Amino acid sequence: MTEIYEQIGGPDGMRTAVTVFYNRVTADEELGRWFDGVDLDRLKAHQRAFLAAAFGGPQLFSGRGLRDAHAGLEITDAAFDRIVATLLTSLADLGVPKDAVGAVGERLEGARRDIVTA
Length: 118
Ligand code: HEM
Known about the structure:
This protein has helices at 2-7, 10-27, 29-35, 40-55, 64-70, 77-93, 98-109, 112-115. The chain is mostly helical. The chain has one domain (11-115): Orthogonal Bundle (Globin-like). The longest helix is centred in the first third of the chain and has 18 residues, at 10-27. The protein is globular. The N and C termini lie far apart (30 Å). The model has no long low-confidence stretch (mean pLDDT 85). Bound molecules: protoporphyrin IX containing FE. Protoporphyrin IX containing FE is lined by residues 31, 34-35, 38, 42, 45-46, 49-50, 53, 60, 66, 69-70, 73, 75, 79-80, 83, 108, 111, 115. Heme binds at residues 46, 70. InterPro entries: Globin-like_sf (IPR009050), Globin/Proto (IPR012292), Hemoglobin_trunc (IPR001486).
């Protein structure tokens, strides 16, 4: 996925994407239920992990790690859809081409079975 990293504008574009995504997730009423009690540093770590999974980081898809991290959180399909859609919209708004946004969506889809437990 390095081409997406480049399309978004390298490290500067990545920072912008994290900020935009982060602001939207924290402002989202339906996702708030999962993130309300989580402190800022952990929340930021979450956004970075999410983006790493979206853009590269195959180790995040080895299963156990993601499954353990979300066990007991009772995350719903709707919440998973919503957070992925929030990222994809953020990327599209930042000018990432449509096919690249679609590829990110497909990539994240692979994590659903490890994360959704409700
Ligand atoms: C591909 C999608 C996702 C990835 C790559 C991901 C990644 C991670 C990682 C790596 C952690 C562990 C963080 C740590 O221990 O510091 C974590 C924790 C967590 N995730 Fe996710 N996550 C994803 C989707 C979701 C979704 C859909 C939700 C809820 C709607 C969610 C909510 C949480 C919460 C609440 C925690 C615990 C935060 C804490 O207390 O530290 N995650 N996630």
